[in-house]
Specification:
It is a single chain. This protein has 5 helices and 5 strands, in the order βααββββααα. The longest helix has 14 residues. The model has no long low-confidence stretch (mean pLDDT about 90). Helices cover about 40% and strands about 20% of the residues. The protein has one domain: Mannitol-specific EII, Chain A, CATH 3.40.930. The chain is of the alpha/beta class and about 150 residues long. Helix 1 packs antiparallel against helix 2. It has a 5-stranded mixed beta sheet, sandwiched between helices. Pfam families: PTS_EIIA_2 (PF00359). This is PTS EIIA type-2 domain-containing protein. InterPro entries: PTrfase/Anion_transptr (IPR016152), PTS_EIIA_type-2_dom (IPR002178), PTS_SugarTrans_NitroReg (IPR051541).
């Protein structure tokens, strides 16, 4: 995925939700409005997250990378959502509750690109300063610039 595919319309900064499901409803609405996903997205992302959690505990911040099968994606992209308060997801490794500060939502039409993209994105997780800048930012262009080197 190229930087050009980071769409300002699906970058959401400093959000708060009562639950992960509430966040997914909000995201699903925005993704449908911008023609990124099919109508089944909401059901499928919640189902997949319940069966295969995507929360990752890192040193200072926690991230999640929810995604659905490619058949529910209309066009490639990635939504980014930040929350200083945190949104409860399940830890991918332990299945325990985990307060997530950054959600990188993968929207990939080809299943074989998921792994490559995940590896590029995950390479940034060891750098706390990058993640802290993303959470603290109030500027979508700044977020895109931070991610530019990671996603190339």
């Amino acid at each position: 995925m190229e930087l050009e595919q980071l769409d300002n319309n699906i970058i959401f900064l400093n959000q708060e939700f009562a639950s992960r499901e509430e966040m997914f409803k909000f995201i699903s609405h925005e993704l449908l409005k911008n023609n990124y996903v099919t109508e089944q997205y909401l059901e499928k992302v919640i189902q997949r997250e319940n069966n295969h959690p995507t929360g990752f505990k890192l040193k200072t911040l926690n991230v999640a990378m929810p995604h659905v099968d490619c058949e529910f994606v209309r066009k490639n992209g990635m939504f980014i959502l930040t929350s200083k308060k945190g949104i409860i997801f399940k830890n991918a490794e332990t299945d325990e509750d985990l307060s997530i500060n950054i959600v990188f939502g993968l929207l990939l039409k080809e299943s074989d690109t998921h792994l490559t993209f995940l590896m590029k994105l995950a390479s940034s997780f060891g750098n706390d300063s990058i993640l802290q800048k993303i959470v603290e930012s109030n500027n979508k262009i700044e977020i895109k610039n931070i991610l530019k080197d990671i996603l190339k």
